[in-house]
Amino acid sequence: MTKGASGRETVLKGKPVSASRSEMTEIVLPAQTNPLGKLLGGQVMHLVDMVAAMAAHRHSNSYVVTASVDYIDFRNPVNLGEIVNLKSQVNRVFRTSMEVGVEVYSENAMTEERKHTTSAYVTFVAIDEFTRLPKPVAPLIVKTAEERQRFEEAAKRRKVRLLLRYGKRHIVS
To answer: What's this model's pTM, rounded to 2 decimal places?
Structure first.
């Protein structure tokens, strides 16, 4: 429950994971690569943040800001001229924050070879458009075994993140 603009308690209706799923496709151009012809890591991080924000925005129906990046794993390089496909979805909702999982794939259009290049977990906070303060987010409805696993693992990552940030005295289960 949350207080609406009228000051009355309102219940936020849950949304399924599928409502947040987002996808983005780019082609790697020379200005985005290093001298070896590989996509710059910072460029990958920018794309990850963008597609993750789309998922958080879709779920929360509000402005969102990046609160943290728990994990980003560069598995394989992305080459000049390859197609980059990014996929994201909300893994878990807390009160005003959401963890979004992102997977990045590269595709060589000439050979059709496709590789998983990057994985990341990004946390966003929903922001009220008028007060600019954090606002409650609708609960997440998990339907599949994979969604439930992501949901449970997100809680573990959050616990570690809060422990690292604030120490034991601020951990709330």
So the answer is: 0.89
